[in-house]
Design goal:
The protein is α+β, with helices and mostly antiparallel strands. It is built from one helix and five strands, in the order βββαββ. It has one domain (about 5-60). It has one helix at about 30-45; strands spanning about 5-10, 15-20, 20-30, 50-55, 60-65. The radius of gyration is 12 Å and the shape is globular.
Length: about 70
């Protein structure tokens, strides 16, 4: 099964959880912690990965909810 990936990004005064490839599946949250929890919950449901954007095109935190995680460097 191919999983889905979710990114947590700062947006204005809040935070968004964005699903890769599906821009209409974005959710907004008041805090980074809320958004990170939501991204991890969605990634678990869809056997994917969650990334916390560092604001510079990379990520500062990562969680894998796949059966076989792929290898990446942080």
């Amino acid at each position: 099964m191919v999983g889905r990936n979710f990114w947590v990004v700062a947006e204005g005064e809040g935070w968004e959880v964005r699903q890769e490839g599906l821009p209409d599946q974005t959710s907004r949250h008041a805090s980074q912690e809320e958004a990170w929890a939501a991204a991890n919950e969605k990634a678990r449901e869809h056997h994917g990965e969650a990334f916390l954007s560092d604001g510079e095109g990379g990520h500062s935190d990562y969680a894998c909810h796949r059966d076989l995680p792929r290898k990446i460097s942080i």
